[in-house]
Design goal:
about 200 residues; L-fuculose-1-phosphate Aldolase; five-stranded antiparallel β-sheet; three-stranded mixed β-sheet; 8 strands; about 35% helix; globular; binds zinc ion
Length: about 200
């Protein structure tokens, strides 16, 4: 499940994308890797990514599409910038060692679907429990919370944020297509949820 906090994190990566030509690509990737490693360690400390679970990415460039993303199998408690690699729009590694998670295709689907600047995929106990208990309804509604005003364009706690829940699959191409379709059918969505 992506939380509103994850979306807030994504916004901080948007500004470099407004002037991509003014920023050396290497410096941009390095800065993103440093920031994501810091965010990841914070997530680990909060119990949002246990062990090697979860993965983080951020857009390095839109044209061509390049993402910095955690390499697979890294314990998030010891995450460093060296654990990030750069991949292209088909999840091929173009910089760094290791390979991206199978879920990399979902990161690409979300970045394409909502123009996200970053995708912070967690595995918290709370989101797992909530996803399980609300799966039969196809999603969970968040409303009445003051913190909803942290979402872009939301001015009141009365806002109702619908987080779709998608059944997990080991077929990432099929799951990625379902993520893309869900995002298309939910215009205005701030974030997505999944049971991956
Ligand atoms: Zn996962």
């Amino acid at each position: 499940m992506k939380t509103p906090k994850a979306k807030a994190g994504s916004r901080s990566f948007r500004s470099p994308q407004t002037t991509p030509s003014a920023i050396p690509k290497t410096a941009n990737f390095s800065k993103i890797a440093i920031d994501l490693a810091e965010i990841g360690k914070g997530f680990y400390a909060r119990g949002w990514v246990l062990g090697t679970s979860g993965n983080f990415s951020a857009v390095v460039s839109r044209e061509p599409l390049r993402l910095a993303i955690t390499s697979t199998g890294v314990d998030k408690g010891i995450l460093t910038p060296a654990h990030f690699l750069e991949m292209d729009n088909a999840a091929n590694v173009v910089r760094g060692d290791g390979r991206p998670s199978a879920e990399a295709l979902l990161h690409l689907a979300i970045v394409r679907g909502v123009g996200a600047g970053a995708v912070l995929h967690t595995h918290s106990v709370w989101s797992t429990v909530l996803s399980g208990s609300h799966a039969s309804q196809g999603g969970i509604a968040l409303e009445g919370f003051e913190m909803l005003k942290g979402l872009e364009g939301v001015r009141t706690h009365k806002h109702r944020e619908w987080l779709p829940i998608l059944e997990n699959s080991q077929d990432m191409i099929e799951l990625g297509e379902r993520v893309s379709r869900t995002l298309r059918e939910s215009p205005g969505i701030h974030s997505g949820a999944g049971r991956t």
